Amino acid sequence: MENLDVMVLRTLLAWRQAGQRALLATVVRTWGSSPRPVGSIMALCETGAVVGSVSGGCIEDDLIDRHTRAYAQAAGADRGLAHAIPSGPPTFVKYGVTADEAHRFGLPCGGTLELLLEYDPDPQSLAQLVAQLESGQLVQRTVLLADGRVSLQAAAAPAELVVDAVRLTNTFGPEYRMLLIGAGQLAEYLATMALFSGFAVTVCDPREEFVGSWNVPGAKLVRDMPDDVVAAFKPDRRCCVVALTHDPKLDDLALLEALASEAFYIGGIGSRRNNEARRARMMEHFGQTEATLQRLRGPIGVYIGSKTPPEIAVSVMAEILAVKNGVALPQGVEVARAKNERELAPTGPLVCGV
């Protein structure tokens, strides 16, 4: 699955290029709890087709009812409306202002959601935005509220959505990328999870016995040496690099190359003992220090007692998503710490002698 924002914008572009009326909805403000964060987008076509999400589904249903042929059939016959989707400058709409609305639209108690609706976005501007995102650029999109005019600018860093009385500015970034070193069974599960989480996945393995059985549609497979692949991958702040081969000749050099990048997550599979041995090798043979290895994660994942490849993949993917989302995990879920504590804990009740 591709990045959700890119998918929404590409689908919206296709509708507009086909001459169909459509709207783009953006979450601009939330109060209390909300199903989707500020900046989330969805697109709605005049046919009733929807891509993306601004809630758990109830708000989407209301927008469909308001702005598509279902609404037009109910109200258009008497009013002579050709299409229910309005036109003109962007408008704001709020959901969940009252307790009844919160219940109706599936919002938590006290939750309120405000959307900006843009009607019939310009196909040329959309095409430019999609092309920039597909080429890996970070783009700032500004919408003037008075007339809906859109301007695009290159952005140096991701930024939160900003809206005032004059304009809305939202930053769209290229999709997150994952580079896996090793094409074994664990990589298959992890790649699958990463794909449906919106990552673009590349898998590197020069070993013939592993690449021959690789079968994860949507994940790119390359067979060059891992350190060369990492260098060519050019990891940035929206990338993670995970070494899964258990072979120091493949994992170590790739991880060292990744540590010279801005990748938000760098980690290698292995036990506590293997992780300590890896760090010792890197310090002894490659001039690394505790400071330079601070970003190297291992043992990777969160502790859930995982033993099988799919369970280990869940553990690793959970940690990657937490780091991506800026969530500080409790120390108790770190694999090494959790296993150490379990080994120190009593294995059964103490029995006192007489």
UniProtKB/TrEMBL annotation:
<dbReference type="Pfam" id="PF13478">
    <property type="entry name" value="XdhC_C"/>
</dbReference>
<dbReference type="InterPro" id="IPR027051">
    <property type="entry name" value="XdhC_Rossmann_dom"/>
</dbReference>
<dbReference type="InterPro" id="IPR003777">
    <property type="entry name" value="XdhC_CoxI"/>
</dbReference>
<feature type="domain" description="XdhC- CoxI">
    <location>
        <begin position="15"/>
        <end position="72"/>
    </location>
</feature>
<dbReference type="InterPro" id="IPR052698">
    <property type="entry name" value="MoCofactor_Util/Proc"/>
</dbReference>
<dbReference type="Pfam" id="PF02625">
    <property type="entry name" value="XdhC_CoxI"/>
</dbReference>
<protein>
    <submittedName>
        <fullName>Cytochrome oxidase I</fullName>
    </submittedName>
</protein>
<feature type="domain" description="XdhC Rossmann">
    <location>
        <begin position="178"/>
        <end position="320"/>
    </location>
</feature>
